[in-house]
Amino acid sequence: MFETHEVLDVAFNEELDSSLFIYTPALGEQVNPAVPFVEHLSLESAVARMPFAVLVPTTVPDQDHTQLEVMYHPARLRLARSHLTLMYRNHESDASLWIDESHTPEPELEKFEWERLEAGSQEMLISDPGAGVRVIVTTLHGTHITIWSDIERDRLVELAKSLAPARLPSTQA
Predict the structure, then answer these.
(1) Cα end-to-end span (Å), the chain
(2) Domain CATH for 140
(3) Domains in the chain: how many in total?
(4) Which residues on neighbouring strands pair with residue 66, listed in sequence order?
(5) Reported confidence tier of residue 5, pLDDT bands at 50, 70, 90
(6) Is the separation of the CB atoms in 100 and 106 below 8 Å?
(7) Does the residue 110 lie in any domain?
(8) Cα 19–chain centre separation
């Protein structure tokens, strides 16, 4: 299916009727506010806002060259699960590390092949095709965690073992 649009007349610097930008719903029509696809937050505001414990790794590879970006993905019509993503970007090595956290498990993970790991008292699942991106799944402090990374397997498992509740400057001893 193709669609074309043509402009028949162009006008510049004309005043527009203000009612052009006002939507008046029909009688009985339910209007919901727009839900953003993603909200960029500080770690502090994510900790204050999330209904689950926000966990961060205590050991991040090459921490001096790694930046943290915190993104909240609210539930939407087709995505009923809200989640928080902690993305660690390293511009020196191009290594990728994405940590998704939620109060519910990620439903799409059943499509992967999993190997069960015991890391001390912590149980994890790892999907490791041997090259490329690895996935680790675990639950800590009631938070469901999915880690996506191209970091080498043993380092990634150590990183997953280091996850702890985020400590903010005002709560540190």
Answers:
(1) 63
(2) 3.30.200.100
(3) 1
(4) 90
(5) confident
(6) yes
(7) yes
(8) 38
Highest mean pLDDT among 7-21, 50-64, 136-150: 136-150
Please state, in angstroms and rounded to a whole number, the distance separating the CA atoms of residues 133 and 103.
24
User: SS3 string of 100-133?
Assistant: EEECCCCHHHHHCCCEEEEECCEEEEEECCCCCC
Q: Quick check: is 57 in a domain?
A: yes
Does a structural domain hold residue 11? no
At residue 70, does pLDDT exceed 90?
A: yes
Residue 134 lies inside a defined structural domain of this protein: yes
Looking at the DSSP bridge assignments, the partners of residue 165 are 55
Place of tokens 């939407």: 76
Residue 83's DSSP bridge partners are: 73
Q: By residue range, what is the domain housing residue 147?
A: 39-168
Instruction: Give the β-pairing of 39-41 and 66-73.
Output: antiparallel
